[in-house]
Write a structure and sequence with these properties.
Strand content: 15-25%
Distance between the termini: 107 Å
Largest sheet: 9 strands, mixed
Strand order of the largest sheet: 26-25-27-28-35-34-33-30-31
Number of strands: 35
Radius of gyration: 30 Å
Oligomer: single chain
Length: 846
């Protein structure tokens, strides 16, 4: 009897166990009973967070649960620079999964219909900075929970929402960091901040392959990771976006709202109201964990190029989360030990609160999004015979217009091409180099933001830049409030007509004002073709009439060693077609005016072999921007050498030594002494921003600098109270302002720039003192330098009419000293040409 009872008891317990297991894995919205979905721990073979994840592990896990579970499907948004696939989990009810195509069709109509139907879309995106790893780990935990949970709120959520989960937005940086941190993690966790686990080697895992901060690239879209991410945004048009980050280890936890006074004026008040309502859910979640936090401080909602603010200008609610970072397994802080496992738990908690808050506010989120686009879509769909908008031109350069239209298309901004050349306000707008953007369209608010030109602000404190006006970044001519007939507009890009010439041509000429002339030049040099550039303007006779060519024009003589005229013509024609540039054939070497083609003022361009100084003490993003330009744009084989290795390098093997901004404190006088012989023998040093300070201390730069100490004296703190200290300090910062340079058009560093003015981004208090050597000043700040953004009047007055770009002669070589970053985030296309000039022209003429 006892044996029978025990047998029955064992059977009953086993039945309970099986029932519990079935309940654990069974999905109520799926006809199949009992679906096993692998947990992160089972997949990895160890507890989640015990080792930092690699990106491939994240992807494999997402693919695994998508195969196993009817609630999960995947979106592929392309590859990173290093070829890593970017995946997003799409989690919703099995019924919704079967109707995703219809849901997506509905989402595509959001901008054009005020009435919204179907589920809301919640996008939770993590670890856009590769060394902020807690988010990616929390994302896997969350994905498994949503796929398997039968809690009532979860099933209700998945019935009424589609949840997008992107665990890793920076695959290349994530793997760089995890390799480092895992490589220096011991069996016993070390919390000492000085331990190598917490001290990443330059350039750290924050940035992507080209060392770009991808959380500053939402507007500019210079990198494939960003392009795929923004495409996903507009494909789903989410109502809510959670943007999960980490911050310094001595902080606690932050969630938005940010500083109220630092919200961009174009962001609707209702956006911040909803953000505040959502904050109540985050407060409750963290209070339940006894995790301290703060809000409405430190971070802002101003620059629309970030993951938490791009949604705000696109009809969604974006919320930033910042977790104190262990940068490894655990690290001492002023608040106690920051543990990675706790960081994962905090990110998971606010992920849950995001889902619960968005679900509770579903109707309000839908109404907010409808109101955001209301009216704009109606005006854009009426197709009036006359459209009002911006008429834009990039004179003599169709490539910048092409780059602009590609950017607009990715942001779903409507634009048109011209069918005829127009004249407006004394400016000519050609078919090839112009575009028209109507004011009344669904993306009107984002359009306004892209060309925002404000210079006055309630609070002069900026977490990032204070301006990003594309007119200045692309150096465009714009006429606003222009009304055009639809008959002169077209959605089809103008056809590129390749240049043709006969066998009688003696030389081929390329207008250097075309942006793609520089990549073509590099291709020709790499194939051993001799190319010259004009130091002075000239005019040639032609059948249609005389043709004027500016200084900087490239000449390819059709008689040269190694190539027949026919083969050379074919090569140039092929490159012209590939890069869509115009080529003019010259049928005589004699000029009508100016220099002849055989003049000694046509200088031979020598092949370049640049070296970029990298490593400790150099600015990570600026090194990356220069590298990106040389490698991706010009296609130049480029050597990067860390500061610690420079003394062992033979500088004579290189034509250019390039210094990005930075402190360069680790460089010694020994290397400084090597630069003298390098430039004397024909080498060129190109240096910008902070690097100039080191060159000056090394007595290599002759022109005197004005640094932070000089400019600080301009500000008077007399009579200020203690609570005014922060605002006073903010005035002393240059929060990414756009300033205007006045160019010496005769200087080769400025060849190819249209006009004698150029906008550049300035974000450092650095300049040159007036110099008696006028020949070395290639560009100066204008008498009223500020074009857009915030810059204290003290700076404006002090920079006015002072040098901004200096070119110092050194026997056969030169030093090009630049006070600002001409390649800012690789979106500053208008001033890229100056870098090309420093590379190709300065060695021959300076």
């Amino acid at each position: 009897m006892l044996k029978t009872a025990l047998t029955f008891l064992c059977a009953f317990m086993m039945l309970l166990s099986l029932s519990a297991e079935a309940k654990k894995t069974r999905l109520t919205d799926n006809p199949l009973y009992g679906i096993t979905t692998t947990s992160p721990e089972a997949f990895l073979g160890y507890p989640l967070g015990e080792h930092l994840l690699r990106h491939d592990q994240v992807n494999y896990y997402l693919k695994e649960i998508a195969k196993q579970n009817p609630r999960v499907s995947l979106e592929n948004t392309g590859q990173s620079h290093e070829g890593r696939q970017q995946l997003t989990a799409v989690i919703t009810s099995a019924k919704n999964q079967q109707q995703l195509d219809e849901i997506l069709k509905q989402r595509q109509q959001v901008k054009y219909h005020t009435k919204q139907t179907g589920p809301i879309v919640i996008w939770l995106a993590y670890s856009i900075h590769g060394d902020e790893a807690s988010g990616a780990h929390a994302a896997l935990k969350l994905s498994h929970m949503l796929a398997t949970s039968e809690e009532k709120w979860v099933t209700n959520l998945l019935k009424n929402a589609v949840v997008l989960i992107t665990p890793s937005q920076n695959p290349d940086g994530m793997d760089r960091f995890s390799t480092w941190a895992n490589g220096y993690a011991g069996k016993v966790a070390v919390s000492d901040p000085n331990h190598k686990e917490h001290k990443q080697r330059w350039p750290s895992g924050r940035t992507n392959h080209y060392l770009a901060d991808l959380n500053r690239d939402w507007l500019f879209l210079r990198h494939p990771e960003s392009q795929g991410r923004v495409a996903l945004f507009h494909r789903w048009q989410p109502h809510y976006v959670g943007d999960f980050h980490e911050m310094g280890h001595n902080q606690t936890y932050f969630f938005q709202p940010g500083v109220p006074e630092r919200t961009h004026p174009l962001t609707p008040v209702a956006n911040q109201t909803l953000t505040s309502k959502l904050a109540g859910y985050h407060q409750a979640a963290l209070d339940d964990k006894k995790q301290s936090y703060f809000s409405r401080q430190l971070f802002d909602d101003f620059f629309y190029g970030k993951g938490s603010t791009y949604p705000d200008i696109n009809g969604a609610i974006g919320v930033l989360f910042e977790q104190a970072s262990a940068r490894g397994q655990q690290q001492d802080s002023v608040n106690g030990i920051v543990r990675f496992q706790e960081a994962i738990d905090n990110q998971y908690a606010t992920s849950i609160s995001s889902l619960k808050g968005a679900l509770a506010l579903k109707t309000e989120l839908q109404e907010y999004q409808a109101d955001f686009f209301s009216g704009k879509h109606q005006q854009s769909k009426k197709k009036k015979p006359r459209q009002a908008g911006r008429l834009i031109s990039a004179a003599n350069d169709s490539w910048r217009i092409k780059q602009l239209t590609e950017l607009l298309a990715q942001h779903q901004i409507e634009y048109y091409y011209l069918t005829n050349t127009l004249t407006q306000g004394g400016k000519t707008f050609t078919v090839e180099n112009s575009v028209f953007i109507p004011d009344h369209q669904a993306q009107a608010t984002l359009l306004t933001a892209l060309f925002d030109n404000r210079t006055e602000f309630e609070d002069p404190t900026f977490y990032d830049v204070s301006t990003w006006n594309l007119q200045y970044a692309f150096d465009l001519t714009i006429r606003q409030n222009v009304k055009l007939e639809l008959s002169v507009l077209s959605k089809t890009a103008p056809t590129f007509t390749p240049s043709k010439w006969t066998q009688k041509a003696v030389a081929l000429l390329i207008d250097w004002r075309q942006s793609q002339a520089a990549p073509v030049l590099q291709q020709l040099l790499s194939q051993g073709v001799q190319v010259k550039f004009a130091a002075k303007p000239f005019t040639l006779a032609s059948k249609p009439g005389q043709l004027d060519f500016p200084a900087g024009t490239l000449q390819i003589p059709l008689k040269q060693d190694g190539y027949s005229a026919s083969d050379l013509s074919k090569l140039v024609s092929k490159l012209a077609q590939e890069f869509r540039i115009s080529v003019t054939a010259a049928y005589t070497s004699g000029a009508v005016s100016g220099i002849d083609l055989g003049s000694p003022d046509f200088n031979v361009i020598r092949p370049i072999r640049p070296l970029i100084v990298s490593g400790k003490g150099t600015s990570i993003p600026e090194v990356g921007q220069i590298w990106y330009y040389l490698d991706s744009q010009l296609k130049v084989p480029t050597t990067l050498v860390d500061t610690s290795e420079l003394n062992s390098i033979k500088l004579a093997d290189y034509t250019h030594i390039i210094f990005a901004g930075g402190s360069y404190a680790s460089l010694d006088e020994k290397f400084g002494r090597k630069l003298g012989p390098f430039t004397a023998n024909g080498g060129v040093v190109i240096a910008q921003k902070g690097a100039l300070t080191w060159l000056s201390k090394a007595n290599f730069l002759k022109t005197s600098l004005r640094g932070k100490r000089f400019y600080k004296q301009l500000f008077n703190a007399d009579g200020l109270a203690f609570d005014q200290k922060s605002s006073f300090s903010a005035r002393q910062e240059i929060g990414g302002a756009i300033v205007e340079l006045t160019l010496d058009k005769s200087h080769p560093i400025n060849f190819g720039i249209n006009g004698d003015r150029l906008p550049v981004m300035k974000n450092k208090a650095l300049g040159f003192a007036h110099t008696s050597n006028d020949f070395s000043v290639a560009a100066s700040y204008a008498s009223q330098p500020l074009l857009s953004g915030y810059m204290a009047q003290e700076y404006q007055s002090s920079f006015a009419n002072t040098p901004a770009i200096i070119v110092e002669s050194r026997s056969k070589g030169a030093v090009v000293a630049i006070a600002d970053n001409l390649l800012f985030r690789n979106i500053w296309l208008g001033s890229e040409k100056l870098y090309a000039n420093a590379l190709y022209f300065i060695p021959a003429l300076h």
